[in-house]
Specification:
The chain is mostly helical and 90 residues long. It has 3 helices and no strands. The protein is rod-shaped, with a radius of gyration of 24 Å.
Amino acid sequence: MPQIQMETVLFVFFAVALIFFIARLATSPVQMMLKLLMNSLLSVVLLCFISMIGEYWGIHLPINPVTVLIIAILGLPGLLLVSVLYFLMV
């Protein structure tokens, strides 16, 4: 029965770990972009909802790529930031 050397076991272990690490790095940007896309779609829906409800009180937040990305990246603090900046500028 052949003996498996410890160096061979360690080499295979580190090779598999390296392949897993490279695969993880390759898929990470895709996952980040999908999350940003989903958050962007949600922020557009949120801005549309706020604009529809805000018509009764004269509140209108602009829907443009900058506001959508700010809200998509920052979340609720981004919505508050866009709201405060818009009302300070107007």
